[in-house]
Amino acid sequence: MTIRNLEYAVSPRSVAVxxxxxRVGSVGRVVFDNIVSGGFEGETWPLNPKYSEVAGxxxxxxxxxxxxxxxxxxxxxxxxxxxxxVRDLAEKGTRAAVVITAGLTRxxxxxxxxxxxxxxxxMRIIGSNTVGLMVPPAKLNASFAHMPARPGNIALISQxxxxxxxxxxxxxxxxxxxxxxxxxxxxxxxxxxxxxxxLAGDFHTRAIVMYxxxxxxxxxxxxxxxxxxxxxxxxxxxxxxxxxxAKAAATHTGALSGADRVVEAALRRAGVLRVRDLAExxxxxxxxxxxxxxxxxxxxxxxxxxxxxxxxxDKLIDRGGELAALSPLTIERLNGxxxxxxxxxxxxxxxxxxxxxxxxxxxxxxxxxxxxxxxLVMNCPTGLGSSPDAARKVAxxxxxxxxxxxxxxxxWLGEHTAREGRRILTEAGIASFETPExxxxxxxxxxxxxxxxxxxxxxxxxxxxxxxxxxxxxxAIFRQVASEGRRMLTExxxxxxxxxxxxxxxxxVVANSAPEVAQAAGQLxxxxxxxxxxxxxxxxxxxxxxxxxxxxxxxxxxxxxxxxSIETRLRAxxxxxxxxxxxxxxxVVRKHAQELILGMTLDPMFGPVLLFGAGGTAVEVLNDTAxxxxxxxxxxxxxxxxxxxIGRLLAGYRDRKPxxxxxxxxxxxxLSRMIVDFPCLVSLDINPMLADATGVIAxxxxxxxxxxxxxxxxxxxALAIRPYPSGWSRDFLSDGMSFHIRPILPADVAxxxxxxxxxSPDDLRLRFLSPRRNFPDQMLKRLTQLDYDRDIAFVxxxxxxxxxxGIGRLSCDPDHRTGExxxxxxxxxxxxxxxxxxxxxxxxYARAERIxxxxxxxxxxxxxxxxxxxxxxxxxxxxxxxxxxxxxxxEIG
Length: 893
Prior knowledge:
Layout: H1 7-10, E1 14-18, H2 27-38, E2 43-47, E3 53-54, E4 57-58, E5 72-75, H3 82-92, E6 96-99, H4 110-118, E7 124-127, E8 132-135, E9 140-143, E10 151-158, H5 161-173, E11 178-183, H6 192-200, E12 207-211, H7 218-229, E13 234-237, H8 252-257, H9 259-269, E14 273-274, H10 278-288, E15 298-303, H11 306-318, E16 322-323, H12 328-337, E17 348-349, H13 356-367, E18 374-379, H14 387-397, E19 402-403, E20 406-412, H15 416-427, E21 431-433, H16 436-456, H17 471-483, H18 491-500, E22 508-511, H19 514-524, E23 531-536, E24 549-553, H20 556-573, E25 581-586, E26 594-603, E27 607-614, H21 619-622, E28 625-628, H22 634-642, H23 646-650, H24 661-677, E29 681-692, E30 695-698, E31 701-705, E32 730-734, E33 737-743, H25 752-757, H26 761-768, H27 777-784, E34 791-798, E35 804-812, E36 818-825, H28 834-848, E37 853-859, H29 863-872, E38 875-878, E39 885-891
Parallel strand pairs: 1-2, 1-5, 5-6, 6-7, 10-11, 10-12, 12-13, 13-14, 15-16, 15-17, 15-18, 18-20, 20-21, 36-37
Antiparallel strand pairs: 3-4, 8-9, 8-11, 19-20, 22-25, 23-24, 23-25, 26-27, 26-29, 27-28, 29-30, 29-31, 32-33, 33-34, 34-35, 35-36, 37-39, 38-39
């Protein structure tokens, strides 16, 4: 499904309550009373054959008696009645329902019966088993919550009714209001992704907060979350951070990934800020909704109490925040306006007798410091200065929550006098907090959210490796393994595969017997000081567990003996298991190298995930790893390195030179490209990979595949994030003019102003079906920042100038059955066939993506577009409900 018909739930003109009651304590009475007492200004109709009147409203016995078609129905009847009621509502024309009733399960068949009844008319179901729905700006409280919510601009999506009502209660005490509150219940139909899609374009909503217990349909969720987070802050809390890690898997990576760590990585990649508890949820929304993302978040602190500053620093550092280092010029400026006893450092302690003017001087100096990005101003009550007066001075300096263009956060400690100070700051648009810890956490939100926003805008390609990757070699290896009925690659096979994606491996020779091992060792020792002999087995997963690795061999004879000892240990520890041979490789000795692990595994929800961290035999004990969702690029790979403790060691310390960061990033990107290219990958370990100043080298590798999927085409359909479809770029001539066509990029937003300036008002009207002059920044972001799953846009660029010449767009339902296309060609370039080429590109893409049908909504007067559709084989018919419009449809097959 999509957001189709959800507007009837959040903007209804009429509401029917099926099961409304006068019985004290019944859900039907509470829900209807809440709607009436809330002041909903639309029509409100109770239905229940037991009553003639409910709460002063005429009560109807059946749906046929209603004086109109309810936009929204709220159902509070017994479970077995719900499917029939939904069918009757759908046939009557109702397009949205909140099913508060519990007990509609998969086991009893009622859930599916309800969905089947709603499907023919695309009627949307919120629930079942939900507290209900609130739309405070419309004065609609269609829930059995204990109190109404205040109107505001924060939307709440909750998978728990109890959490939703608790947050309503908390928000009322803290003067926080809501635009929408959606309790999802069992999510039989409407889920988190649907709500995010709807709220992304909701002008009533400035920020979205979510309480998530599970993430159904992860790819749909990621697509919706990424779309929403580009336009407004999205904050989530998801319990279960300390769930036991994934069960034993065939690789170290599988054991280390852990479900919650994958969720963390997914939310971060979607641009969603994750908070730890309910108290932080709305605080975070109130804070970050005021500001744009920052490049850095170095915090400068002004306080009249040193202890408060120390507490703030502790919490800031705990949360990974950064304290600003004041420039000499700022220190000099502060020396001129503060008493000699000031702290001469950050936090700027302006001393307990600080008057409002001292606050002003310190804040102005700090906000002018180029090394400061966020300002935190704090006040501790004293008998020497007025807390409210200090707040008034700060409020005068603040400009919509900023000072000098930098976010300004306030913390007035205490109760009696501080309460007035916090009120003054809040009314001035300055985020205000009661404790230093809360204020520091708020500053950390800005940093975490800004980092997530940067990750969100990355668009890794499916073909970044170009000619450097030998995909055909890897495919041949995988096919050979599959033909033998195996899942696990041998070590030589695994190393050959990763080497094909640019990951260096040591020279390796395969030997079948101890004499051959000795011979191979003799050859390798001609150019190496030492060699390593390892067990070659198609069934033993971890060679070291059975004594299958012998290091530091200096002679050919020692190598032969090592092979014999490996065979002896194998018989003792794994009776009945035979060696398939041995590998002999040069021993890599790098005194100052760090041991790393790179790996991938399949997460049950988010598909392939990539792991990086400290490697070696104690990898699980060290547990210094970080998770990311592929695909990666250089920036995302660098972020993954920096998320680990070993990442700091790799930067160099004492006598150790920095490791070759570019080589580590290249290895991560190579692994990412392999994951994109091969849906058959189940798990992979590169452990250890040595990294030092001279580069990287993988000493061991293990790969598991699904033999049934070896020939499946790329890109990997299990990826939670679709890679940038670089294969859809090409050059072409159109009526003698040269163009380059490619999928749109976020940076293309900069091309839009000049492009739109060269579109005539009439052409804009034909494209957008109505006159349009203004294109807000949010709209342009939505047009240019796609995740390439449900939406694709192709830009045609003039060769030479790079100017935007035309755009073709295809927006699909999440199930990819139908896509709606649109074209816009610059007015001065029309008539040269550019629109034809863009439409052909869209059709070719739809066919490759197996989209069943594409359609376009066209004004009847747009004869050029209608003619072109006819030439492409579209069927054209008048729009069934909109006079003046036609629908052009092409069945792709």
